[in-house]
Amino acid sequence: MPEDEMLKPRIASIDGRCLYLTYGPSVLTHCPFCRSDEPLTYLYYALPMTLLPHLLHLFALGAATSSAVAGKAVSRWRTLAVVFGVGLAMTDSYMTASYDWKANSRALRAEDLDHFFWRMRIYRGLAIAIEDALFAGLIWASSTNRAFVVPPTASERTEIALQKLEGVRARLGAIGVVRNVVVRDEVFRRKDDAHWRKDGQILSEVMDEREVVEGVRNALGSGRINVTMVEEEAKKYSEGITASPENPLQS
Fold this sequence. Notes:
Helix content is about 75%, strand content about 0%. It is built from twelve helices and no strands. The chain has helices spanning about 1-5, 15-25, 25-30, 40-65, 65-70, 70-75, 80-100, 115-145, 155-185, 185-205, 210-220, 225-240. Helix 4 packs antiparallel against helix 7 (about 80-100) and helix 7 (about 80-100) packs antiparallel against helix 8 (about 115-145). The longest helix is centred in the last third of the chain and has 31 residues, at about 155-185.
């Protein structure tokens, strides 16, 4: 292959082979300004390719923890995830820059050689995968309220309550419209009156049955039903309904 032919003369020397094990074949093959007598030029060319997986990883983390994509519950982990991602990138860059590229020149056997480039590529992928798994677990635990539960603020609780009240008001308004239509329409009104007459008749027949009468009598006689308490609760309920908003009755 052409790349292999280009690589052969560059690894003919010991320094070339050490640089190959440190920075990989792509750097030695494609770097237009690198020279073995200036090894830092290889580092300058290799660093952008070293950081590229981390930049893609940071982009993926930012998108996955964005409030627009994943919601507010997930976006709380965005800053921490980005900090960890940047930390991985800085650690990877430091280890690459501080590595002694001539260390392999002292190896006497093939098994003593340190394949730094391929070793770091494995460690890099494992570190990124571990971070992703860690934050996936944190997001799952917080989103399902198994851990790291953050109670809503007072303003959020107020907003939720107002939304529910607005929904109730809308439903009551719809019921009022339906009821108004029923009352105004003669056919609907006759059907409504017939329904309630039949309902009252059925309830009266049920209450007149012997089993029901005996059950009510036993409940009242045994004290299982506190009539006084029931009357008090009914009074409070009726007062709460008829209370004026400007001068509500105190229970």
